[in-house]
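Newbie here. three chains, one complex. Structure please?
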Amino acid sequence: MQVSSQIPTALVALDFFGIAVFAISGALVAAEKRQDFFTFVFFAVVTGVGGGTIRDVILNVPVFWVLNPLYVAACLATAIVMHFIAPLVESRYTTLLWFDAFGLALVTVAGTVKTLDVGAPALVAVVMGVVTGCVGGIIRDTLGHVPSVLLRREIYVTASVLGAWTYVGLNGVGAGRAAAMITGFFVTFIVRSLAMTFGWSLPAFRPSSQSATDDSEK
Amino acid sequence: MQVSSQIPTALVALDFFGIAVFAISGALVAAEKRQDFFTFVFFAVVTGVGGGTIRDVILNVPVFWVLNPLYVAACLATAIVMHFIAPLVESRYTTLLWFDAFGLALVTVAGTVKTLDVGAPALVAVVMGVVTGCVGGIIRDTLGHVPSVLLRREIYVTASVLGAWTYVGLNGVGAGRAAAMITGFFVTFIVRSLAMTFGWSLPAFRPSSQSATDDSEK
Amino acid sequence: MQVSSQIPTALVALDFFGIAVFAISGALVAAEKRQDFFTFVFFAVVTGVGGGTIRDVILNVPVFWVLNPLYVAACLATAIVMHFIAPLVESRYTTLLWFDAFGLALVTVAGTVKTLDVGAPALVAVVMGVVTGCVGGIIRDTLGHVPSVLLRREIYVTASVLGAWTYVGLNGVGAGRAAAMITGFFVTFIVRSLAMTFGWSLPAFRPSSQSATDDSEK
């Protein structure tokens, strides 16, 4: 419990915005699937707090929303608002991708920062930043049966990895905390945005023969 | 470890019946998929204790079946019995839904009670009740590749939410513990039963245009 | 933290090889799906450490790779190597199955041993061995949208159960630790290998009527 008091206000705000944005992306999946109100809320809450929950459980620190249920209240409020304004949004799928990119950047940095703060090594902090950033969206896509952000061959995990290493690197060379956080956020968000805008992708793994790839359809 | 001694016998019994019922629903999915005996056991155990495991891990209390392996033994016994009697059940899918409703009601209340007991706020208790109640079935449906209870547009999450709030509300106004638990159970079970019997559903979210919904098929 | 020092070197090595082998199987799924480099790494890490992470979280002991990030580094190195040598492997799907069998045997025994070491009862140790052994592959298959090892009607969970009980049984009758571990490993690996080689399977559950099985397609 004593850990939470060490976390500065900036990180709390980062967590807060990150879960709200992921909650929006969760509500948008529920909208796509034409679910009822409480399923909206379920997707908003699970997507919003899922990544951070796994981070806290693995780090063995108190889960952030058990300490402070305002995070859950924010997901609830987000789901209610989205239930009314989602119809106004023309193409929800594209909107989902942009909110997801914003959430990815915020949550990646927040996860990385919190992991370093509890004294874990740099490599663990990067892994936790990436897993935290990506797991919310993966849970959302798995439960909602929509194509996983993980397997679309766009730069997604890559953007998260680069942002997490940016924070860890700047932190390692003694940069200010806020500067490192902001830079890490923008590295992830800009890389992901450029990838979405221009359809960038890293080279895909090339199978050695056609017969090998046919196996994947089995 | 000291937490377990505070949990009254009634709650232990509730936990126990809840996991047995979910174990049955897990075994029925394995039956639908014509799996072998050990996969029956796997589904029975994972569905039976999955929701409560996530609850305990998030609350950072000792996982109930690690303290008391009788819960796991109950899942094993359930799987063995189901392996013999499942063929007698005419329509397993309908049976699965009724057992699932019973388990949902029991586990929702048990999860809500345990969360309040460890001192968490009311909103957290409701979330934990709902997540605990729904996650067992979600894991079962995800691993078994059957249509998720989450996305069928019936009242499911809704029933769990109402039951959890009922317990929290009655508890808040000073009602007796047993009365609040029983009322919470029946609210969830009756709402879910009526929804199944009469095909009730909450109004689905209406998309703004046809083109937007087409996106969901991508 | 004091738990880790009690774990003997042999178990650490077992954990280490187990996650490397699962990391290979994760990278092979990424190869099948023609993903980019960082998704290779993501699958290698999640598959490699996923099972052990869930084991440690449920046992409420520090997660092994947070204590020792060399495990994560091993997954990273595995992903890098696999990115280069996977094209040399003719049939990746078959290769995946063999690596998975090896990983299943190693991780089942490692999970069983660690659970007994922290003082949990025998039944819990078997469950943890099986869940730990199978969950890595289940996460990999779920995230990669490949047919789950769980539902292929081959002997899979069965092999893990037999290996875990072998260790627990030999341990119970006072056999040497190393001998029990090696025997448990070979029981799982040989049972699984024979099942793969000869297409062995346990008798499938027989539904009572054709109409009941049609339900599963809904």
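Moderator note: Residues 1-6, 208-218 of chain C have pLDDT under 50 and may be disordered. Residues 92-117 of chain C form the longest helix (26 residues). Thread marked as resolved.
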